[in-house]
Amino acid sequence: MAISLCMGLHATHMFVPPTPGPLAVAGILSADLGQVILFGALVSIPVTLVAYLASLYAGKKYYYLPTSVEDTPENQNLPSAMMSFLPILVPIALMLLKTVGSMCKLTGTPALILNIVGTPAVALLIGLLIAAVGYHNIFPEDTKAWGFDGVIADAMKTAGQIVLIVGAGGAFSGVLKASPLRDILTASMSGVSIGILAPFLIGFLFRTCVGSATIAMVTAATMITPLIDVLGFGSPMGRIIAMLACAAGGMMVFHGNDDFFWVTATTSDMDTSIAYKTLPIISVLQSMTALVTVFLLSMVLL
After folding, report:
1. Per the omega criterion (within 30 degrees of 0), is the bond before 253 cis?
2. Range of the domain at 47
3. pLDDT for res 48
4. Which of 2, 20, 118, 276 could be joined to 268 by an S-S link, Cβ 3.0–4.6 Å?
5. Contact at 8 Å (CB) between 22 and 16?
6. pLDDT in tens, 35-48
């Protein structure tokens, strides 16, 4: 169950905004966020299914029972299911509605409203406000939550790291565009039909070496941005395919240099040897499944 949950989260974390990686890559590649959500969710379905089937096999082969499971206190104050999901679902719904409105060529006041609330920054801000209201309803006595020592500060620390990563990626992209390396790469890749393999391989290398899925995706997107036309991703749909290819490559190899690897192992009381025998292999299966799915989409949409 722990492996299945982990790898299911892994799939949506890589493909479906508003998680940081897809959100950042969509911005770097100037891909429509609503369509990224739609096609990212589509790709994540077979990827999650493969992880589920592999988890069933791994669960039977490496069966164990956790020894340090603690029951949740019955009187613990927890949010309702609706309040738990709203901060995530509302921004996604708003961004999707904006995309649908654009596709349907909606005009007038409804289109104006959707263009405002469906903008990623505004939609995510609305989600943040909903989460803040939910937290205040559960912990009204926590007056430090909104200060430098509270949960907002902790969230800003995490967000700040992502902003720095994206900023560094943008700077790197600017250097590539301004340097002769762009012309060299363009000349060397002209006539070479590598397509989605370029972002896929870059994402794979950085995920394996660095461990951060966000860094892997952002780096892959940054490096292909100057070559977006040469690689055949210049169209709006091509940019979405490129984003999905970055995510597919960034899925593997998921191993011990990733914090989430140890979170999964420790919270589920999983032996390290079992974690190393299962999670990296399933991540490779997910990545290859995603690559095939993205390739099929590119054949249909490009």
Report:
1. yes
2. 1-67+143-301
3. 94
4. 2
5. yes
6. 898 899 999 999 99
